[in-house]
Amino acid sequence: MSKGYLTTHVLDTYNGKPGSGIKGSIYIFEEGNKKKIKEFTLNEDGRCDGPILENDNFKVGKYEIKFFCGEYFKKFTKLSDNPFLDDVVIRFGISDNNEHYHVPLLISPWSYTTYRGS
Description:
Elements: E1 5-12, E2 17-18, E3 23-30, E4 33-41, E5 53-54, E6 61-68, H1 69-73, E7 87-94, E8 100-107, E9 112-114
């Protein structure tokens, strides 16, 4: 069993607060196919209540997190039916399943930034 785990945190830079209620999904790429592992909704602090992945689900490999940010920002702005940013997709790799990987997202309706956090 791995000792590592995956977490995320979303900050809404447009409103200056955590991305509370943003929905997301995480996928793994296996043998060239993308497989959904789970869906999540961020809490009031813009985080999941626990790790997104841990234990046997936290494997070395290629992953994708999809954040449904367009849906979130429609609550605060008058976005068109084709917003500049809608779903934000972050693809990344896990090379050591005994480490903590953290994927933060800073988001506005017009830009985003991510990095490997701690």
